[in-house]
Amino acid sequence: MTGHRSLEERLAQTLVDALHVDVPSRETDLIRTGRLDSVGLVDLLLRLERQYGVRVDMEDLEIDQFRSLGSITAFVAARIEPAPTNST
Amino acid sequence: MSELLQRWVRDHAERRPDAPAVRLGERGMTYAELERASNRLAHLLLAAGCSPGDRVGLLIPKSPAAVVAMLGVLKAGAIYVPLDPGSPVIRLARIFEQCDDRWLLAGGDTGVLVDLLSAELPPARARELRVGWLSGATPPAVTPLTFDAADLEHAPEARISPRTTPGDPAHILFTSGSTGVPKGVVITHANVWHFVRWAVTYFGIGPSDRNSGHSPLHFDLSTFDIYGTFAAGAELVMIPPELSLLPHRLARLIRDAGLTQWFSVPSVLNYMAKFDAVRDGDFPALKRLLWCGEVFPTPSLMHWMRRVPHARFTNLYGPTEATIASSFYTVPECPASEEDVIPIGRACGGEELLVLDEHRRPVSAGEQGDLYIAGVGLSPGYWRDRDKTNAAFTLRPRTSNPEDRIYRTGDLAVMGEDGLVRFCGRADNQVKARGYRIELGEIETALHALGVLRECAVVAAPGAAFDAVICCAFVPVTGEHPTPAGMREALARVLPAYMLPARWLELEALPATSNGKIDRRALKERFTHEEVVVR
Questions:
Q1: Contact at CB, B497 and A37, closer than 8 angstroms
Q2: Ordered structural domains, chain B, with CATH
């Protein structure tokens, strides 16, 4: 749980750095509120690959996987190795 | 001979009532259904006191219901003003007030937005507001409704005789204005009618066509999607806006829906090419691919022409002020080199392109000049703004005919010996980013209004997947520490999302040219460079 929480915090920071958007809550719909558009999505995918080692094939993406901080966290968590230091 | 835009639907509803007219996903309407629903809406509007020439704001997400709204307003003799549900409410209220609107048609998920908009209007205006709710469950809104979706179900369906003439305005489209106030371009029935008649004939659009509806409804490309489809008795397949984020999903939709015509800004086609979403021999049903609004990068065009060799590729050009498009160029074969410049071509039927010097005299072939447009597409001007209208729309030099007007596009162009016109850039600070026309000055005005910046400059620089990304360089006021995320949030309250800068750079001073102006070229290069280095 600790690992998941810290991943979400790191991803929130990545969204601030990559997209320059504040994320009011983990449920905020980033797409409907105009925070995440195609320019932002491409930037975010690049960051996920470079910072998190998560290689995303654009072809396999679904919109809902990127709709909110919560769904992005779940998406990334399912694709990275569990962090040994944080998992209890 | 020109007619009213609602006429096409009526004709096809009589001849082929069960033919599909418009759909979004599983929800679709036939021509007969569209005709009846728009008649019912017109009856409700008339019963509620809507008069010819009244402006009616449309706050409805892209859907068949939005098309019903447009046709219903036209049948009532009124003028529709498509509003972008994604725009900040302050901007919507400003447009609404500028139009002196009293009517608002809403639906889908815009219930909350209606309340916010109503709260943003001066109290006297808010009291006059008449809201019609067209689709979906009536929201628990505070603003009282004049009629709702149930009323619409039960209204009379009898045909309404025309209450306007072809020279009357059909809609007003708002575009970015350099001083921070959006400009309303008035478009008449005849403006649209002439272009659509020409295009349906030139492209050979017919009843078996399935045309894409990719553009947002407040954007003038959608005028052709809608009326170009209805004039031909074809089917309009609306593209859900969120799909534009995912190039492969867009490709799948084109494939699965068997689209025969695609029309959009080039940036989405470029996006699909860069992420390799188009397969060899893809989209077997696709007969033609049209783009408008900005330059289609030649390497991406070549990619498309190789992958989809059976389609016809046509570049359309023209500002909103001249209605959809004023010139066209069908690319005869795949360009030989990535350096090839695709012309904007020749004038469409009834239009004329003029390349003039600063004294408004024609320049010689091959020389660069200012591009002007004349002909049947010219808007009567900006809504209730005589100064801006007179600055952009003037009489043709040495004409004695007061109707013989020309419109200065602000684009620079060259007319070749071959009679083809080529675009050479802008004479001002306007840019196109993902097809949206953006006055960079409008963004800078909004940034300065935040009160935390000593200096700022907004430029458009090429990005990884897009040719123009909005970038902002800024110098904070001493003692202030604004963050890009904070400024973006603040800007999002006044500007639409597509105008928000995506790249930010804090500097101690902005670079200056030798005569003391902000060196925008240097900034653009800096952002282009950062794009390569950082990402």
A1: yes
A2: 7-203 (3.40.50.980), 210-343 (3.40.50.980), 431-534 (3.30.300.30)
CB burial class (10 A; 0-12, 13-18, 19+) of residue B286? buried
Q: Are B237 and B23 in contact (CB under 8 A)?
A: yes
Are A20 and B242 inside 8 Å of each other by CB? no
| Model pLDDT for residues B166-199, shown as the tens digit of each residue | 999 999 999 877 666 789 999 999 999 999 999 9
Read off φ and ψ for residue B321, nearest 5 degrees.
-60, -20
Could you tell me what percentage of chain A is helix, strand and coil, using 3-state DSSP and rounding each to the nearest 5? 55, 0, 45
Q: What is the DSSP string of B315-339?
A: EEE--GGG-S-SEEEE--S--SSTT
Average confidence (pLDDT) over B409-429: 94
Q: Given an 8 Å threshold on Cβ–Cβ distance, is B277 in contact with A19?
A: no
Q: What is the pLDDT of residue A2?
A: 52
* A12 near B CB under 8 A: no
To the nearest 10°, the Cα dihedral for B200, B206, B207, B209? -100
Q: For residue B263, is pLDDT > 80? A: yes
Question: Residue B497: phi, psi to the nearest 5?
Answer: -55, -35
Using an 8 Å Cβ cutoff, are B379 and B322 in contact? Answer: yes
Average pLDDT over residues B93-116: 92
Concatenated DSSP letters for B453-493?
EEEEEEEEE--SS-S-EEEEEEEEPTT----HHHHHHHHTT
Which residues have CB under 8 Å from B161's CB, separation 6+? none
* Cβ pair B186, B378 in contact under 8 A: no
* pLDDT greater than 80 at residue A4: no
E-state strands within B368-429 = 368-375, 381-382, 393-395, 405-415, 421-426
Full set of structural domains in chain A with CATH: 2-77 (1.10.1200.10)
> Contact B177/B442 with Cβ under 8 angstroms?
yes
Instruction: Tell which B residues from 484 to 523 touch A, by Cβ distance under 8 Å.
Output: 484-486, 488-489, 492, 496-498, 500-502, 504
Phi-psi region of B29 (alpha: psi -120 to 50; beta: other; left: phi over 0): beta
Q: How far is A82 from chain B (nearest CA, A)?
A: 26
Q: Is the pLDDT of residue A88 over 60?
A: no
Token pair, residue B141, equals 């809104």
d(CA B304, CA B296): 11
- The model's pTM is 0.93
Average pLDDT of the residues of chain B: 93
Total residue length of chain A: 88
User: Do A39 and B484 make contact, defined as CB atoms within 8 angstroms?
Assistant: no
**Predicted local distance difference test score (pLDDT) of residue B400:** 86
Residues B294, B301: Cα–Cα separation, whole Å: 13
Question: Is the predicted pLDDT of residue B494 greater than 70, yes or no?
Answer: yes
- Pick from B63, B386, B416: nearest CA to B240: B63
